[in-house]
Amino acid sequence: MSEKRGNATYVLENPPSIITSACVGGKTEQQGPMHDYFDKTFQDDYCGMETYEQAESYMQKIAIEMALDKLRLKSEDIDFMFGGDLLNQCTGTTFGVRDLNIPFFGIYGACSTMAEGLQLSSLMADNNVGSKILAVTSSHFCTAERQYRFPLDYGGQRTPTSQWTATASGALVVSPVGNGPYVRAVTIGRIVDMGVSDANNMGAAMAPAAAETISDFFKDTSLSPDSFDYVVTGDLGLVGSRIVCDLLCREGIDIRENHKDCGMMIYDLEEQDVHAGGSGCGCAASMLCGYFVPKLRASQIKNILFVATGALMSPTVNQQGESIPSIAHAVWISSEKETKI
Amino acid sequence: MSEKRGNATYVLENPPSIITSACVGGKTEQQGPMHDYFDKTFQDDYCGMETYEQAESYMQKIAIEMALDKLRLKSEDIDFMFGGDLLNQCTGTTFGVRDLNIPFFGIYGACSTMAEGLQLSSLMADNNVGSKILAVTSSHFCTAERQYRFPLDYGGQRTPTSQWTATASGALVVSPVGNGPYVRAVTIGRIVDMGVSDANNMGAAMAPAAAETISDFFKDTSLSPDSFDYVVTGDLGLVGSRIVCDLLCREGIDIRENHKDCGMMIYDLEEQDVHAGGSGCGCAASMLCGYFVPKLRASQIKNILFVATGALMSPTVNQQGESIPSIAHAVWISSEKETKI
């Protein structure tokens, strides 16, 4: 049984393991500083498919297959899965996993999707509902641009605060039995809306949600940021990262020394033309699955708080003048199962 | 702990209760045969708002508030919630629940959303993760038409196989403690795609998914349709209902005597101009929350298998020539907690 602390934190009594993970990326990701941490990268943003949407689905399929292959698992070994993405009706996922025949829960958390899937998988595994549960997500620069902003062919100018949707996918499998890294606690996010309505400044929209969830986690668990190697936000980018640190400092929570943002890790912000950094479900997912989980498994780092953030906006309601509600889900992942920190 | 049977069925050991539920509908729903079962109906499809999208969000808010009011619950009594809808990026839900401040998991299962939310809520409650968990969904004829097919102003002709997206919302709360009706078992659906690509014939696309999940449930539990008052499909409509009964008959499972389809219940197919029947997340959700749950609570009926079906299509990929993958999730709901059937 998972023990509730505070309003929205659950401490897992039988911390489940992330037994395998994999991630794939596109060309911009290959050219970035994290290229060695991808299991596979594609030179071509079509990934050999006919449309960008098909390419995104294909990336999910490859990420899942590579994660399963590492443990010689087959899709029938998976009890059920959680998956979603940024595309309308989450078709990146639907078409990516259609042939796998795995019992399927569709989720939507925008760029927080990997944290949401990992939370749900871990809560299920902590209670022995399922012995192997998969979580997957993806994003693709070209599918996201045409859906949320302008088709690439339009050649629109991007603003300095805009972020670059990562062409990437990450998949992982959670099990009640394993050698870690272990999911120790989760804090479920609430929808936060501070009135930001600029679809080209999502970092600013999401930062208050991240701050609220991070603050909830530390209050609910009585832990402090010092005990964590990294407090990892999903894709706040340059603008949102500054805001989240500022907001938390005002509450007496200082994460400036050990804060990392996947959106700032995945690209070289000086050399690559990505403006305020990376974004998209695939950004946090690939950094978690390709960088952090392997480092935790090898005990090169011991504890991270993974906080993926989602801007729950839609062009339809955005054009109606609505603001951008956001959400952030936090997951404490540790190389150790029981040690108190 | 929930006990796994077969590939995707979980029998709940401590069957949680649906402790409250409510549903709201629009004008066409008010004019239909089920008007008395709605807690509230709106004469105006704008529900007093400025846009149809705002109206859909408002319906979700009202459905949740009415469900909570019945037990004098407040939003802070809810541990967390599952919600989603048909709109791009699930904004019907996001904006509907934004002010409630409830820890939030976004889900996407198209018209299967209420069954997905009920399954996840019930699996959590069965394992005492959360003492009160809310599930909500909605759909709106006008938001769905303009997003999936044509804006209403276009005045397009509807085909005979097309269905009428219900303007409705349903909300319910699940708890480990209560007097029923009880969630006894769930069968998680898999994505099924038989190649149907006509967005005006979703019943035909979804029927094979419903047949597979219903067949899985009866095989996994060794129960038979005779033991159920009703096998309730979500929104297969006239076309899909015939197909699901035929497909199951071929497998030796005869549900013809006790099959009900929410899409055929919610409207008068002869008197109302709804072609093949109702559809949309709100269709199955309102019939579950307004009709079946109260009847189960009053022991007027004893057992139903609730099988909401979702067409996981998107105009973007549909226009690229893709078919319509579908999914169906099944939930056994009983007026009794333990009696074997």
Offer a concise description of the structure:
The structure is a homodimer of 341-residue chains. Chain A is of the alpha/beta class and 341 residues long.
How are the elements arranged and paired?
The structure is a homodimer of 341-residue chains.
Chain A: E1 3-5, E2 9-11, E3 17-25, H1 27-30, E4 40-41, H2 52-70, E5 80-85, H3 91-97, E6 104-106, H4 113-126, E7 133-139, H5 141-148, E8 164-165, E9 168-175, E10 182-187, H6 202-221, E11 230-233, H7 237-250, E12 259-261, H8 262-265, E13 278-279, H9 281-297, E14 303-311, H10 315-319, E15 326-334
Parallel strand pairs in A: 3-4, 5-6, 5-7, 8-13, 11-12, 11-14
Antiparallel strand pairs in A: 1-2, 2-10, 3-9, 7-9, 10-15, 14-15
Please characterize this protein's 3D structure:
The structure is a homodimer of 341-residue chains. With 341 residues, chain A is α/β, with parallel strands linked by helices. The first copy, chain A, folds into 2 domains: 3-175, Peroxisomal Thiolase, Chain A, domain 1 (3-Layer(aba) Sandwich); 182-334, Stage V sporulation protein AD (Peroxisomal Thiolase, Chain A, domain 1). The first copy, chain A, has helices at residues 27-30, 52-70, 91-97, 113-126, 141-148, 202-221, 237-250, 262-265, 281-297, 315-319, and strands at residues 3-5, 9-11, 17-25, 40-41, 80-85, 104-106, 133-139, 164-165, 168-175, 182-187, 230-233, 259-261, 278-279, 303-311, 326-334. In chain A, the strands form 3 sheets. Chain A has a 7-stranded mixed beta sheet with strand order 1-2-10-15-14-11-12, with helices on both faces. Chain A has a 6-stranded mixed beta sheet with strand order 4-3-9-7-5-6, sandwiched between helices. In chain A, strands 8-13 form a two-stranded parallel ribbon. In chain A, helix 1 links the parallel strand 3 (17-25) and strand 4. In chain A, helix 2 (52-70) crosses helix 3 (91-97) and helix 6 packs parallel to helix 7. Chain A is globular, with a radius of gyration of 18 Å. The two termini of chain A are 21 Å apart. Chains A and B meet through helix 3, strand 6, helix 4 and helix 10 of A and helix 3, strand 6, helix 4 and helix 10 of B.
